[in-house]
Amino acid sequence: MADKPTKGLADVVAASTALSDIDGKAGRLFYRGYDIHDLAGRTTFEETAHLLQHGSLPSRDQLAAYGAELVRGRTLGGLVASNIPEIAAKQEPMEALRTLVSLAGADDADKDSNAADANLRKAARLTAQQPLLVALYHAARTGATIPDPDPELSIAANFLLQITGRTPSQREVEIFDTCLVLHADHTMNASTFAARVCAATLSDMHSAIVAAIGTLKGPLHGGANEQVMRTLEAIDPSGVAQTVRDKLAAGEKIMGFGHRVYKTEDPRATHLRKMSRELGEASGDDTYYRMSKEMEEVVFAEKGLYPNVDFYAATVYHYLGIPTDLFTPVFSVSRMSGWTAHVIEQHADNRLIRPDSEYIGERDQKWKPIDER
Question: How does DSSP classify residue 189?
Fold first, then answer.
């Protein structure tokens, strides 16, 4: 008798990868063998993207060349650029990004090739264009005009400038850059798996990324950081503990806690908690940080659950001036580096991903003509 299937493919190894690894018991995350604690705050997002896509942390010359490629890659094609206003008027953020990335594929000079060099060029363009697409979408729906990306600024600095309309401080740029590093890759999560399943059919990189974005759009994968912020905004600061206890007693889930893999604190949350506190204090109103800390203490006391990456990311993004409904799109800005690296890896050593299934329907049914049914 065949083994019973594992719901959600939990603990089933679906692919081999050299990109990232997790030690769930110890609460550790690695990108190509580098501990996230060694990278966060010390390695830029551009360096991290190069590490994932090219396989190594870049030298100064390699980083300069990759940076120049990102600058060139920001230029949008006519099809995607001309459709942003109408898409912004009709689609919510993640729906819009799904559509815009698909249109960008039609504009891409390498759209018909899955060759290694073409994939690397597409990966750089997608990584460069995603923050610009988010910013242009937001500008279109609000009627704002944003400055063109400054080739002298990093992805993090350009994005904050375009989203908030003000020049960010150096420390704000450093913090947001660290956020991008922390979210860059995370083994075989749902959106990454979707991208690899699509790529495994030898479909193109843009199609695989559209599959990933569509998967991230689902509230059981993306959106938790947005829900954390909505929860904080809805709670009276003086009644955090009781509100959380009441929600837990009613069987409600508190977003931003627990993780499928980590059995201790998510290592990314360690950094985000510190940055939330710093930004809250710098803003002159650290209410949301203090509420978050109290919520964390109550949830741990009641359920023994640790915060995950989404919990403190919410307040960090809030303090940086990022609109709440753009939190998940910001996640895609960072994760684009990992998604594209996984597509490159899948194409380089490909086998069609085709799991089996357990049939649980009726058997031995007898056909009848329509008038006898």
Answer: -
